[in-house]
UniProtKB/TrEMBL annotation:
Record bears the keyword Transmembrane helix: yes
Subcellular location: Cell membrane
Highest taxon, organism lineage: Bacteria
Protein family: Belongs to the binding-protein-dependent transport system permease family.
Keyword Lipid metabolism tagged: no
Organism annotation: Kineosporia mesophila
The protein's name: ABC transporter permease
Bias-annotated ranges (Low complexity): 9-23
Length: 293
């Protein structure tokens, strides 16, 4: 039977040996991590597209029309001789920029209206929420289509039309969060210390709603990209030969059976972007929930 000294001496050594021999814990690869990596790759390809491709987006490549995949045209050419890959990368860049601007503007406007309504209360709250309900009462896509048709088909008109119908959700979210935060202890403490008015709202109540707004915005970017593509698909985006993904898919539908790559690859780009942002939004929500935000 070993002595206590031997047991004490061998204990740490055994523990160290056991720890050294144990396999290191591997980090779990989550869909959100894959989505983040995919987004980085897509953004880099979109931004570097003009440098990576020798072809222009508005000038035919000089090769035969409807050419299939080749070393010079990885995704083939369309019915006008444009390089499909070049135009898909350009369309991805346009969609990302437009979606970020629309989502950011809608979130900012909705946050401002909802914060004022929730913080001030009374007739101001009732008036702003009735206006918000009025916008929510109509189908957002139909209203956006009407606005774009009135302004004239273009990317700018599509962005304005979507932004006008996209902000009410953020206003509702901000109002609810602001009203909930108004009775919290830290807001009461700030009020007792002499902080009032806009300073109290901006410094102590608005920050409480930011995590929810960020998660909602990250999820909404995919929806905005889909809506922009839908408007362009029905002819309410920029006119041809603009490299908008929805317009490219629409123009290539007549070649779907013979030259399927013309409408399919722009549609795949739209679906991939939407899927990536959906997973990123879920991941951001999980992170903020784990941190108690």
């Amino acid at each position: 039977m070993p002595s206590s000294a031997e047991t004490d001496a061998s204990g740490p050594a055994a523990t160290t040996s056991s720890s050294a021999g144990a396999p290191r814990a591997r980090r779990k690869v989550t869909p959100e991590t894959v989505a983040l990596a995919a987004l980085v790759i897509v953004v880099l390809l979109a931004l570097l597209g003009p440098l990576l491709s020798p072809y222009a987006t508005d000038v035919p490549s000089g090769t035969p029309y409807l050419a299939p995949f080749s070393g010079g045209h990885w995704l083939g050419t369309d019915n006008l001789g444009f390089d499909v890959l070049t135009r898909v990368l350009a369309g991805t860049r346009i969609s990302l920029f437009a979606a970020l601007v629309v989502t950011g503007g809608s979130a900012l406007l909705g946050l401002l209206i909802g914060a004022v309504a929730g913080f001030v209360g009374g007739w101001v709250d009732s008036l702003l929420m009735r206006i918000t309900d009025l916008f929510l009462a109509f189908p957002a896509t139909i209203v956006a289509m009407a606005i774009v048709a009135a302004l004239g088909p273009s990317l700018r008109s599509s962005m304005i039309g979507i932004a006008i119908v996209w902000w009410p959700l953020y206003a509702r979210i901000a109002r609810g969060e602001i009203r909930r935060a108004a009775g919290s202890l830290h807001v009461e403490a700030a009020r007792m210390s002499g902080t009032h008015g806009a300073r109290l709202m901006l410094r102590h109540t608005v920050p409480t709603v930011m995590p929810t707004v960020l998660v909602t915005a990250s999820l909404d970017i995919g929806g905005v990209i889909m809506t922009l593509a839908a408007l362009a698909f029905i002819g309410l985006g920029s006119p041809a030969p603009s490299p908008e993904l929805g317009l490219m898919s629409s123009a290539g539908m007549q070649y779907l059976l013979d030259s399927w790559w013309i409408p399919v690859f722009p549609a795949v780009a739209v679906g991939l972007l939407s899927l990536i942002f959906n997973y990123l939004g879920d991941g951001l929500r999980s992170v903020l929930r784990a941190r108690g935000a």
